[in-house]
Amino acid sequence: PGAARQVLDGVYAHSPPGVAKFNDVVVASGQGCWVNTTDGRRFLDFSSGIGVVSTGHCHPAVVEAVRQQAGKIVHAQQNVFGAHEPLIDLYDKLSAVLPPSLDSYFLANSGSEAVDNALKIARAATGRQNVIAFEGSFHGRTLGALSVTNSKYIYRRGFGPLPSGVVVAPYPYCLHCKAQCATCHSGYPSVARQGQQQPPEADCCGGPLESLELLLATQSSPSDTAAVIIEPILGEGGFLTPPPGFLASVRRLCSKHGIMMIVDEVQAGAGRTGRWWGHQHWLPEGGEQQYGSSNSSNTNSIIGADGGPDMLIFAKGIASGYPLAGLAVRRGLVGADRMPPGTLGGTYGGNAVACAAAAATIDVIQREGLLANAEARGAQLRAGLAAIAAELPAGLIADIRGRGLMVGLEFGGRSEGGSSSGAGCDGKGGCGSGEGGCGSGSSKPSRFTPASKGVAAAITQACGARGMLLLSAGVREC
Ligand code: PMP
């Protein structure tokens, strides 16, 4: 440890403190879910490099694909050449796992870069300027992506002015729902209520959706609004799963007004949640629903025609750690009339080695049944955590949530409320911070008391000391 400390001190002398470090270790190698350090320690890597190593560290098939491609050609620049072999292979594999309506792909190097391009495309495709993002969302650190990032002020403070035209709506946060509506509280997969079924098509107290409608009526008229960008499961903002009907309601609203629905699948995509894409837990696969009514202001028949997203952003898990990100969009929205040659690009986008890694990753996920595995291991993890929570004093773990292997714990207390129509309902709380009605229901809602600041950080540190790499997230956790 002494020698490693010395090496790290040397590195940190050249590293700006702005690059946060969660663990002071020097990595030597990784295999599967294990990481080995230069001082001979071994860590169980729950962080998976912030949701990146979807096939585990150094999966042999990915290593082999990279090794082979590195010896053929590494940089076959996307503007210089029409295509290269791994790109052809990757497009083929992407088309098998992406929603069929999103049939045009653009490859970039990072999630942030893909988000920036998504915003550009949305503005060009609709001829509108504004974008609606959600409280607690994280979409990246480049200036464009930062303009729609709201998970912590630390990401934004001092870096403005950011691109304008962004309006922020509340994301449903059922555990914190001030309205104490029965739908939120009885349906929420909490420690106290594990196993209860969520109602199939509910919008919890309706607060966040009402707020979104209000935003369109007050701050950003539909005719000015290009896109809504949303994480299907809020990642950095605290691993929040939306209530069952929320994404479909957002879709419906977007379709009604000709607004593009962009799902940011950087964290929740590439199989991590047990489906290829996180939004598939809540939105129809396509073709099942017709949106847009007779009084619809949607003049673009392409938008939302099949009930799925209009654009999907991927990165992280798609290439097992090689820098590859991208977006998939309805082809009709990126025609040459809207985005002529030269408007999209980048030196390294679609790098041949990264494409080979991504193609191999999709193969491995399919061949080894990793979607089903994420579902099974996730259920095992949540059950284990619930058993631990049951042994702990009340008031420590308030919630265990997520889908598949995108799992979070929220620390804090829950106590039973009293009235059947919403104990403590102040009539204006709603989920998130929006104005919302109190739901009426029959189950007794419970009150949530947050843990003191720093509890999650202390626990992740303690886990690190015991050989487990965990990360903290959430709007209150820096
Ligand atoms: N979107 C989401 C949902 C993310 O979680 C992240 C990164 N944590 C990004 C975008 C940005 O990705 P990158 O760090 O690759 O730029």
From TrEMBL:
Tagged with keyword Nuclease: no
Cofactor (UniProt): pyridoxal 5'-phosphate
Molecular functions (GO terms): identical protein binding; pyridoxal phosphate binding; transaminase activity
SUPFAM superfamilies found in the cross-reference section: PLP-dependent transferases (SSF53383)
Keyword line: Aminotransferase, Pyridoxal phosphate, Transferase
Record has Protease as a keyword: no
TM region(s), chain numbering: none
Top-level lineage group: Eukaryota
Family named by the database record: Belongs to the class-III pyridoxal-phosphate-dependent aminotransferase family.
Name of protein: Uncharacterized protein
